[in-house]
Design a protein that fits this description.
Structural class: mainly beta
Largest sheet: 6 strands, antiparallel
Number of strands: 22
Order of helices and strands: EEEEEEEEEEEHHEEEEEEEEEEE
Distance between the termini: 29 Å
Strand order of the largest sheet: 2-1-11-10-7-8
Number of helices: 2
Helix content: under 10%
Strand content: 35-45%
Shape: elongated
Length: about 240
């Protein structure tokens, strides 16, 4: 079972099993994990389960939530990820992932019932096998999106095109769900400097980390994109 180790100054204070659909973290005694620190908001963050994944979400805290020193609004947790809240470190441990072997590098879990293997791990393993279709120019930036919820049968989509289309149309590379969605909802373009997202005209608002996109903006590793009922996380491959 997945669990959280609550640490302060490298000392383990307690372990909390993730045996509920959602647990809250904060300074208030009403939380599942109480952190007695004035830098922590009364209701600071939560960790919830979405299918086989565990996701940490910042609850609009004053000082923010960090995963592996990166400030996040939402983040799909991987084994041994460290969530920093105030002066406390919350280590995410997923024992099923550990049982597959420490040789597998950590990434995003796509396991269902028969095999526990993380999406990023899977990409890293497959990357070791020469494939002509995966060849790219040296130094070219690689990225993709992992569907968190509301997908249409897609789990992990590598952004291999110069222009990736998201929408409800048959032409869409990323299939979206939701009312009032157009054939094309947003576009992700790849440039030498990185990946950029832009919205399409229409009634649907595309959000990045909860903020509606304006014109065109660069995507950062870990950004959460929401359109209609579909939520996904953008990643950059190292």
């Amino acid at each position: 079972m997945a669990r959280i180790e609550v640490r302060f100054n490298d000392v383990v204070l307690k372990e909390v099993p993730l045996d509920k659909p959602s647990i809250t973290i904060g300074r208030s005694g009403k939380n599942d994990i109480v952190l007695d620190n004035m830098a922590v908001s009364r209701k600071h963050a939560r960790i919830y389960r979405e299918g086989p994944r565990f996701i940490v979400e910042d609850l609009k805290s004053l000082n923010g939530t960090f995963v592996n020193s990166k400030k996040v609004s939402e983040w799909i947790l991987s084994d041994n990820d460290q969530v920093l809240i105030g002066k406390h470190a919350l280590l995410f441990i997923e024992e099923d992932v550990q049982s597959t072997g420490e040789a597998v590098r950590k990434g995003q879990d796509i396991a269902e019932q028969t095999l526990v293997l993380e999406t990023k791990k899977q990409r890293e393993l497959l990357a070791r096998v020469p494939q002509a279709t995966a060849e790219r120019k040296s130094g070219e930036i690689r990225g993709g999106v992992t569907i968190i919820s509301g997908g249409s049968g897609q789990e992990d989509i590598e952004l291999t095109r110069r222009l990736t289309v998201a929408g409800k149309g048959d032409h869409a590379d990323i299939k979206l769900k939701g009312l009032f969605l157009g054939r094309t909802v947003f576009l992700i373009s790849q440039r030498p400097s990185g990946f950029y997202i832009s919205g399409s005209s229409g009634r649907t608002t595309t959000r990045v980390n909860g903020i509606p996109i304006q014109d065109q903006q660069e995507l950062k590793d870990g950004d959460v994109i929401t359109a209609g009922r579909t939520k996904m996380q953008f990643y950059l491959e190292s």
